[in-house]
Amino acid sequence: MLFMIIEKFKQGKAPDVYRRFREKGRMAPEGLLYHSSWVDLEFQRCFQVMEAESEEKVHAWTAKWEDLVDFEIIPVRTSAEASAAIAPQLG
Description:
Alpha-Beta Plaits
């Protein structure tokens, strides 16, 4: 399952996020795969695509960052998967 993770850096904490990442890495549990990420120009939000068998893996990872970041976790699918899923409704 794919997840769009929207990270909202707590006020003034972006340097701390990057410092921890530099020192400890992503700290993702086994079975949580990182695909890609983008950071806004003001260092307020990061948008990540990650993959895991369950959302519990995502929560195990976010627990290690909650002192610096607020998270929104959104299960998503690829455009190809969405197209296939909606095809029967198109007539």
